[in-house]
Structures are given as C-alpha cells and as structure tokens.
Design goal:
Elements: E1 7-15, E2 20-25, E3 37-38, E4 40-43, H1 50-62, E5 72-78, H2 82-85, E6 90-97, E7 112-117, H3 128-142
Length: about 140
C-alpha cells in the first residue's frame, strides 16, 4: 500500500517594477519560525495540488485571489527536520508577479506583512528556508 506524503506550500508576491517582495511576519504563537519573516503558506488539504494549496493559503491569510495558473514554482524540496518537528515532508515554494497595494489586503494571520525591497530583504530576520529561497529567487530573476 502506498502512503501519501504530506506537503506544504508557500508563496510570495513579487513586484518587478519596484523590485519588492511581499513577506509575512509570523507572530509569537507560530509553532514554526515564530517572530520571523517568511512566505505565506501552510499544509496541503484533501486532494489539492501544491499550487492550489498555495493559492488557498494566500487567500486565507491576505484575502486576495491568486490564480493557480499564474503561480510560478520556485523550488520543491524535502524538509530535513520534518520527522522531529512533525511537519510536512515536502515544501513547494511559489511566487507570482503582482503589484497589489498593501491597502487592498487584509491580514488574518500573523503579526504583519509588507512589501520589502530586494536590496534590503536580507536585513530582515527571516527563517533559514526563506533566506535560501530568496537567494534562489534573486539568482533566477537576474539571469
């Protein structure tokens, strides 16, 4: 019998005109990376795809609609500490180009969120996975 692997998806918005990314400040109650800047996301539910999960999570956390077909896969990787942390086994990270103003979003989870200039992004206290993903993202857009 095949066991279904658990997964999580996360994502961020990227404004190419302003060279900014929209990041999420997790609150102190978060079980993973409390009080750190990270992407929006969470665990997959039911039979949804990784992209559907990312779109749903952003809708739940920011009250904006993200079309699944517009999401761009940044990376898909095994989370090294998933066994000890009882977290999801695979992580899928996406981004979408957008210039939605912060004023049109409503945060429903976490402490804050903001558009962060790429040239200042590494000054923020981010989760290790977010740092690694953003480095990959910056390399990708500079190609």
């Amino acid at each position: 019998m095949e066991t279904k692997k658990s997964f999580a998806s996360n994502g961020f918005l990227y404004n190419p005109k302003k060279q900014e990314v929209l990041l999420h400040l997790r609150d102190g109650h978060a079980t993973t990376n409390p009080n750190k800047w990270a992407f929006f996301g969470g665990a997959g539910e039911g039979g949804e795809t990784a992209a559907e999960c990312c779109s749903r999570e952003i809708k739940e956390e920011l009250n904006i609609d993200i079309p699944v077909e517009d999401l761009i896969l940044l990376r898909d990787y095994l989370i090294p500490d998933y066994i000890t942390e009882k977290r999801c086994e695979h992580q899928h990270s996406y981004y979408i180009e957008s210039d939605i103003p912060k004023s049109e979003m409503i945060l429903s989870e976490g402490a804050d969120f903001d558009w962060v200039p790429l040239d200042k992004v590494f000054e923020y206290d981010m989760s290790d996975e977010t740092v690694e993903s953003l480095k990959m993202f910056i390399e990708k857009i500079e190609e």
